[in-house]
Design the sequence.
């Protein structure tokens, strides 16, 4: 009988991860931390660094032929945090009033810590795969750099994004577009000699922003389009000859990225060019698919009887599902969704404890 103590404290690990600065990059130190913990628990661990300082982790233990029953995944990067706007150190990892404080506490280092702790404590013969990535916040960059041959197909992919420990069966697709208008430069005192690209694109931005006829999915909700950035002009006395805006589109089943591009192109008009910057498909797990109800009950008792939920944000599942042989996807993590990306981000310690217990149930019973 194996009597090795493999207990890892998820809260302690989450605090250590929060203290590692991965705001927009430099994930290697966090990757090394989770890799060391998993290596110590008997996993075969590979850390790859396709860009300097930016690393992915793939860990596996137990038989994995032809498929592994469960793959855990999470991302190690966070969005930026300017300390001057925070009431506490965003990299402090302090626990106060029952909450873990810091950037990434909810999105999603607490979730990663819960997965790692549960995996380390699972029975050594339990087949399990873990995938932790860099650059998820900027379009699943790390997941896209994984070698599919390094992954074993899986029956279930559990993504520990913040859901406040509710089971979520997928999410919308994501399309980021660059829209560009070109004009003719002229002196600001003779605007009639030029063609103002800013004015042309501003009109397109107004039409896109004001459009209210986007489709609504019965499962995933409405398509949304956000005009996120707008850049044009050099100085007031020069007619701008180029203008650019970037759009965030969230797509749904039945209205994917091709349909979105066609609709936005019509709204913008023929003089505005569109370029896809990020194009991530949505994810939708059928709650009636074999085994899904049991997984939901192990993670959150009673969840299989509730109306299935689908998230508005994207996750690495958009990229990983194809690499893993189209597993069922469940998003479940201790972070609070409303805390993602906010100033003074925090996560419930009770939620971390609950998520850790849920992951242990899953690994013991699925």
Sequence:
């Amino acid at each position: 009988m194996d009597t090795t103590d493999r207990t890892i404290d998820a809260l302690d690990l989450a605090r250590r991860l929060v203290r590692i600065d991965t705001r927009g990059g430099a994930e290697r130190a966090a990757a090394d931390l989770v890799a060391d913990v998993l290596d110590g628990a008997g996993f075969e661990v590979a850390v790859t660094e396709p860009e300097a300082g930016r690393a992915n982790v793939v860990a596996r233990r137990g038989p994995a032929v032809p498929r592994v029953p469960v793959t855990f995944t999470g991302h190690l990067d966070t969005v930026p945090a300017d300390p001057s706007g925070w009431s506490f150190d965003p990299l402090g990892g302090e626990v106060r009033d029952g909450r873990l404080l810091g950037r990434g506490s909810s999105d999603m280092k607490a979730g990663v810590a819960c997965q790692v702790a549960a995996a380390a404590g699972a029975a050594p013969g339990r087949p399990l795969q873990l995938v932790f990535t860099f650059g998820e916040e900027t379009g699943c960059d790390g997941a896209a750099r994984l070698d599919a041959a390094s992954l074993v197909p899986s029956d279930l992919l559990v993504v520990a994004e913040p859901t406040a420990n509710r089971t979520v069966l997928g999410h919308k697709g994501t399309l980021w577009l660059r829209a560009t208008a070109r004009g003719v430069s002229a002196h600001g005192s003779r605007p009639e000699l030029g063609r103002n690209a800013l004015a042309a694109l501003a009109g397109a931005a107004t039409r896109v922003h004001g459009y209210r006829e986007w489709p609504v999915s019965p499962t995933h909700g409405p398509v949304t389009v956000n005009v996120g950035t707008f850049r044009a002009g050099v100085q007031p006395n020069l007619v701008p000859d180029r203008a650019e805006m970037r759009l965030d589109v969230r797509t749904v089943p039945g209205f994917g990225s091709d349909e979105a591009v066609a609709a936005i192109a019509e709204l913008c008009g023929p003089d505005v060019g569109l370029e896809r910057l990020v194009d991530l498909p949505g994810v939708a797990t059928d709650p009636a698919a074999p085994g899904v109800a049991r997984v939901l009950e192990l993670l959150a008792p009673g969840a299989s009887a509730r109306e299935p939920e689908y998230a508005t944000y994207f996750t690495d599942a958009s990229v990983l599902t194809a690499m893993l042989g189209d597993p069922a996807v469940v998003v479940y993590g201790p972070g609070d969704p409303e805390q993602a990306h906010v100033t003074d981000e925090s996560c419930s310690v009770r939620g971390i404890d609950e998520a850790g217990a849920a992951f242990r149930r899953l690994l013991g019973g699925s």
Remarks:
- The chain has a mean pLDDT of 96.
